[in-house]
Amino acid sequence: DGYLWPRLTPHLCSCSPPPAAVPPALGMEVMAPATINALNGTSVKLSCTFNSCYKVENKQFSLNWTYQECKNCSEELFLQFRTKIMNKQLDRFGNRVEFTGNPTKYDVSFTLNNVQLEDEGTYNCYVLNPPDRQRGHASISLKVLTKEPPKRDSTVAVIVGASVGGFLAVVILVLMVVKCVRRKKQQRLNTDDQKTEEEGKTDGEGNPDEGTK
After folding, report:
1. pLDDT (tens digit, 9 = 90+) per residue, 130-180?
2. Residue 118 falls inside a structural domain
3. Does any domain span residue 56?
4. What is the CA radius of gyration of the chain?
5. 62 burial class (0-12, 13-18, 19+ CB within 10 angstroms)?
6. Nearest Cα to 113, choosing from 181, 53, 44, 172?
7. Tens digits of residue pLDDT in 81-120
8. Distance (Å) of CA 207 to CA 147, 196, 210
9. Could you tell me if residue 115 is inside a domain?
């Protein structure tokens, strides 16, 4: 296709084929969590890493971090790597953006300090590492919380456990009551039968005496 590779020694991995071009399916992959929750006023790391079959060369490697306030809003560039890190000081972030990744280790994460409610939105991570011809992309949805969420194992689990335990206790109690009622009823029937039997015997013993008289 006329594409000429730069003269460099690629860091080949198992996914790298010998032909001159790398098919898109075998190109670079960028990975980031879909959603990150951050507490208002704290610092949060927006993690973004990538896989590449080639060693990172600063002169050719490029990185862009952009911010979107809403789904259909335009993207705002606030952090860029071109041979070195360059922060685009947007008014919304000021100097709160700190690059905490290491491209040579396939990590392009950054930390957002003193998180504000207005920082909610989508953060896009774009990575290009030639000779990979495909630019990788991942998105993170940042949610800013005003208070810490409740622990998973506390209230709900206790309520559910208590409800289930209480229900089972009621069921067991009802079964015991029913069983006791049936047992008492059976005992009464047995007692009545026994009395009837005894009365029958008494009557049977009295008849001969009366006949003798």
Report:
1. 998 889 999 999 999 998 767 765 444 445 455 555 565 565 556 555 555
2. yes
3. yes
4. 39
5. middle
6. 44
7. 988 888 777 788 989 999 999 999 999 999 999 999 999 9
8. 94, 17, 5
9. yes
